[in-house]
Amino acid sequence: MANSTRSRRPTPGRPRARPSRRRRPAPRVLRRRRVIVGVVGILLAGLVVLAIVPLAGLVSAWNAETRRQAIDLTTFDPGTLISDADFYDLNALSAGEIQDFLDAQVGECRNDSCLAVLRTTLPPRGPIVSDATGETVCEGYDGGELTAAEIIDRIQRACGISAKVLLVTLQKEQSLVAGRTARAPEPRELGAAMGARCPDDAACDTGAEGFAAQVAQGATDLKSYSASDFMRQPGTHYIAYSPDAACGGSDVTITNEATAALYNYTPYQPNAAALAARWGTGDGCSAYGNRNFALYWALWFG
């Protein structure tokens, strides 16, 4: 028999040996390209990150302006400016929530009087009880060196006037919450913060000037109208359009105590020109206090 040649089979369980292959190093040009691509990628990523912050700011500003322009005053009801439940809500916002709101609305402070960073002394005060009705107008509270947010919160809880109402009043009276004035208030603006006992043509009453005193006095006045059964109460009343009697006014059926309090605090209603102008200027007979209260309430809390 002729000898036959058989191919050798691999041993079961052992892998067939393969010749090793050496990886050739990448050419220098290719390596340089990889480095360049990597660096460019890092730079582009950095540019994207840097663009996000200003873009977010622009989007936020655009959203705010969109909300402003969307507010419709064609259904404005002078007889119901706000509900009693919203007005007399002593737990409307916590001190932390008020601080967050101020940070967001004020933006970058340009002096230390800005409400987002202000710290000032609130003197302690005992309970205030109405002589006329015996009702408690405001509970007593402890004083101390506090932030603006802490002062607003403390007065809110003592007097039972919503922090949201106090914030809107600070804005409508002296623009202390949003806008250019809010970022750098002057002493006179901070001193008459709530417009409480501070006539337009004279100095504030003794003891009423200063941020803490203003918040305390303003909230006390807003609460006293109902607690003391004082001045206008719900019902039909003649409300003028302006301090100028020649501008006239109309009868308004005030539906609740909160609306009565706002008219006692700011005794004019917006005329047709003020309502049509919305955020702008009406005519010579336009008054803006209660219109602006309605606008900012709708913008921030409506």
Number of domains: 2
- Structural shape: globular
Question: How are the strands of the biggest sheet laid out side by side?
Answer: 1-4
In DSSP terms (H or I, runs of 4 or more residues), the helix count works out at 11
Average of the residue pLDDT scores: 87
Strand tally: 6
Report the sheet with the most strands, covering strand number, pairing sense and barrel closure. 2 strands, antiparallel
- Would you tell me the structural class of the helices and strands? mainly alpha
- Give the terminus-to-terminus CA distance: 107 Å
List unreliable stretches of 5+ residues: 2-20
Radius of gyration: 33 Å
Order of helices and strands: HHHEEEEHHHHHEEHHH
Helix proportion: 40-55%
The amount of beta strand, in percent, is 5-15%
Q: What is the element layout, followed by pairings?
A:
Blueprint lengths: L27 H43 L13 H4 L7 H12 L12 E4 L5 E2 L6 E3 L5 E4 H12 L3 H12 L5 H4 L3 H5 L19 H17 L7 E6 L8 E6 L2 H9 L6 H6 L11 H12 L2
Antiparallel strand pairs: 1-4, 2-3, 5-6
Written overview of the protein:
Strand 2 and strand 3 form a beta hairpin. This protein has a two-stranded antiparallel sheet. With 302 residues, it is mainly alpha-helical. It is globular and about 85 Å long. It starts with 27 loop residues before the first helix and ends with a helix. Helix 4 packs parallel to helix 8. The longest helix has 43 residues. The chain is built from 11 helices and 6 strands. The N terminus is likely disordered. It folds into 2 domains: 148 residues, no CATH class; 71 residues, no CATH class.
